[in-house]
Amino acid sequence: MSLIRRISTSITSTVDRAVSKVENHDAIINAALRDTQQAAARSRVRLERVRKDGHGLRTRRSNLELAVTRWTERAKSIGASDEAKALECLRRRKECEAQLRNLALSIDKHDELEARIVDQVKKIEARIGEVSQQRNMMRSRQSVAEALRTINDIEGVSYGEIEDTFDRWEINLGEAEIQMGIGSSIDSLDTEFIAEEERVELKAELAELLQTDEERPS
Q1: Which domain covers residue 52, as residue numbers?
Q2: CA 45, 51, 54: angle at the middle one, nearest 5?
Q3: What is the average pLDDT across 154-172?
Q4: 183 membership: H or E segment, kind and range
Q5: Structural domain includes residue 129
Q6: Domains in the chain: how many in total?
Q7: Domain annotation covers residue 215
Q8: CB 86 within 8 A of CB 44
Q9: What is the DSSP string of 58-86?
């Protein structure tokens, strides 16, 4: 194996291993898709140039065909009066006919090349559409997989762990509220009135119970 081939093989295997470890598949596909789209854009530009060249060849063919007709008519018009000029007209016509034959071969080759390029550009654009569609499908599948994984992670947490998490959350919020002065302060006077009102209600309830017992027949 030649040195260049060994180096190429080594680089390729290294790149393959590196790519296989990359998790961001979306970024890889996007990069490849972007490069392909740029290549397709360049191909379309070059195709337009090829078409322009073909148009130029056909225009030249039309001009030569007109020239053949024109030199023929000139030879006819002066054939009887000026033989030398008539023969020169026929010589010019032969030159145009020879150019037409060579030009016909060029046009055939050009048309074949243009058709091949058009076919290749169509295949590239079709492949871009397929890759884009497949990428969108994979994105959707990944979104669903991530949602299911999140659900499974939540379901894998015990109820006690969730409650502990809420408790820690409550503690952290309470500490933050105290530090910010958000927590409610205790009103001692209000507390005293509440306690006295509760004691009066309880005494009234007790008196009602005692009175009921006295009125009950023995």
Answers
A1: 3-162
A2: 150
A3: 73
A4: none
A5: yes
A6: 1
A7: no
A8: no
A9: HHHHHHHHHHHHHHHHHHHHHTTT-HHHH
- CATH number for the domain that contains residue 111: 1.10.287
Using only C-alpha atoms, the chain has a radius of gyration, in whole angstroms, of 48
| Amino acid making up residue 214 | E
CA neighbor of 61 nearest in space, from 72, 53, 50: 53
- Residue 149 belongs to some domain of the structure: yes
Environment class of residue 89 by beta-carbon count within 10 Å: exposed (0-12), middle (13-18) or buried (19+)?
buried
Which residue's entry shows tokens 């659900």?
151
**Residue 71 exposed, middle or buried by CB count within 10 Å (0-12, 13-18, 19+):** buried
pTM for this predicted structure: 0.49
Distance CA 64, CA 52 (A): 19
> For the chain, first and last CA: distance in Å?
121
Report the percentage of the chain scoring pLDDT > 90: 30
